[in-house]
Write a structure and sequence with these properties.
alpha/beta; 39% helix
């Protein structure tokens, strides 16, 4: 099984990747939307943990882009965020 972690915060990428690796996933990480799209074009991922709020692209828009790149494959997209305030 393979996974992609997309988050602009390094700590979050490391934490999510470590959790997925413990579950037996081969994990790749991306710090922004462009890198995520490049990785999805180059490799197949079964699961994507996708930060909801990144500086270059918001999670829902990136999810649409990733879905377009993987239209023939079944990929689970899971939105995550480290923000816990009411404002977000």
């Amino acid at each position: 099984r393979s996974a992609l972690v997309v988050d602009d915060e390094e700590y979050n990428r490391l934490a999510h990747a470590a959790q997925l690796e413990r579950l037996g996933f081969a994990v790749q990480v991306a710090a922004d939307g462009a890198s995520a799209c490049a990785l999805m074009t180059a490799t197949r991922c079964d699961v994507v943990l996708l930060d909801y709020d990144m500086p270059d692209v918001k999670g829902p828009e990136l999810a649409r882009r990733l879905r377009a790149l993987t239209a023939d494959a079944r990929v689970f997209l899971i939105a995550v965020t480290a923000y816990t305030t009411v404002e977000k």
